[in-house]
Amino acid sequence: DNPAVEREKILDPHRAATLQRMQAQPVVLIVQDTTELDFTSHPPQDAGCLNKPDRFGLYDHTSLALTPQGVCLGVVGEEQFDRTPESLGKTNERVNWPIEDKESFRWLTGFRIASQLVEECPHTQIISVADSEADIYDIFVDAQEQETPAGFIIRAKENRSIPEKDPAAGPAVYRKVKDAVQASAVRLRKTVELSQTPKRMARAAELEIRAMRVTVKPPHARSSLPQVEYNVVLVEEVNGPQDGTGVNWLLITTLPIKTAKEVGQVVDYYKSRWLIEVYFRTLKTGCKVEEIQLETLSRLKNCLAFYKIIAWRVLFVTHVSRECPQSSCEVAFAREEWEPTWRVVTQSPPPKRPPTLGKFTPLIAELGGYNNRRGDPPPGPQVIWIGLRRMLDFALAWQTFEHAQQKLVYK
To answer: How far apart are CA 278 and CA 70, in angstroms?
Structure first.
């Protein structure tokens, strides 16, 4: 509740550290998405509404930096917005509005954030990744007009027209992008592991993948905009479950598709988008941000800024421990954190050399309820979140009593 505190300034040091982590990577995916934060049961005094007049809260749009291997590097952009009761139910009226006046402008802003990072990380390939809500024609025009745009992979929502007539459909009808790519040859057959979601069970999916370059006409509501060119990758599941969860992705991208390897890479990069859903789940289920009870939106947004950093750290520890298990645990933990945790969990003195992440992270997870039995899968964000909370208490006690005994101050 300090008027000098702003959420942007809270996140600035985290963004600077994220930038350093990005600059050490050859490829970074900037995944953007929106989640709903519902505070209906205890809304701030000045809360706006969500999709109904009697539901209060805000929408959080986050840009998250990830490696293609799934290591979460940090938050590089965020925006919060809400609605007024008068604005609800007027979607059709907003179709012809300028993009800057629409809620969907946040997707273009997210792409521009990724493009700005191209300049800040000159030796890193930056790729903006988003789901179908980001299928906005203005983004494609923006990418075509920028000097140094980020690459992008966006799942198509609209089946747009190409500037070629379809005689079978009538003299004034243009062919559609999906029809054109569907008529092309299969470029790649691939089996991918799909993670579990609220709508499907985890499974191995057999995919047929086609790809081609297309020229696309602007939509009627944006007819003043120029035509654009991009690559499309059509991903269709073969012999999938007939329950509506079969894979059918039309991916729009600026990444190369000349070889089968390049086509497969587009699919792999898009699959990484799911990690932002894990981030939001960590923020809401692990950090329980929807249970925060504060009187004003400004206080709530400041608080959320801290929790965004905490949720990043939970995911970073989770995935870097899997990808780099032989690295020293001091990649992610201070000495004052791992030493007391080691002593409490193992009931033995901490080793002189820091243990590896592969040995230490399961100890944190044990504090959160992880069994750490041979054959158990690696610990997930939930148990690590709980363990980190307990580790903080141990670290504070360790610093306090060690300082009192030895008169030492640690950095």
So the answer is: 11
Residue type, 383: V
Helix residue ranges per DSSP H, 134-201: 137-145, 177-182
DSSP H or E segment with residue 238: strand 228-238
Cα dihedral: 40, 46, 47, 49 (round 10): 100
Quick one: pLDDT at residue 348? Answer: 95
Q: How far apart are CA 207 and CA 233, in angstroms?
A: 12
Angle between helix axes 357-367 and 297-323 (nearest 10 degrees) is 130
Question: In sequence order, what are the beta bridge partners of 366?
Answer: none
- The burial class, CB within 10 Å (0-12 / 13-18 / 19+), for 313 is middle
> What are the residue ranges of helices labelled H in 35-184?
105-120, 137-145, 177-182
Picking from 74, 77, 64, the residue whose alpha carbon sits closest to that of residue 18 is: 74
Residues 88-123 have pLDDT tens digits of 877 767 777 778 888 999 999 999 999 999 999 999
State the pLDDT at residue 406: 57
Measured between alpha carbons, how far is 213 from 262 in angstroms, rounded to an integer?
13
Consecutive 10-residue averages of pLDDT for the chain (411 residues): 90 96 97 97 94 95 95 95 87 75 93 97 98 96 94 96 82 88 94 81 91 94 90 94 88 97 96 94 91 94 95 93 93 94 95 95 95 90 91 93 59 45
| 8-state DSSP, 122 | T
Partners of 228 in the β-ladder? 216
Distance CA 310, CA 259 (A): 40
CB-based contact 290:39 (threshold 8 Å) = yes
Q: What is the DSSP letter of 83?
A: B
% pLDDT > 90, the chain: 75
Q: How far is CA 360 from CA 141, 287, 323, 335, in A?
A: 48, 22, 14, 12
List CB contacts of 41: < 8 A, sequence separation 6 or more.
none
Q: Rounded CA gap, 130 and 126, in Å?
A: 13
Distance between CA atoms of 69 and 363, rounded to whole angstroms? 24
The pLDDT score that the predictor gives to residue 405 is 58
Whole-angstrom distance, CA of residue 46 vs CA of residue 80:
14
DSSP string, 254-298: SS--SSHHHHHHHHHHHHTTHHHHHHHHIIIIIS-GGG---SSHH
285's tokens: 């289920």
**Tokens at residue 38, please?**
């519902």
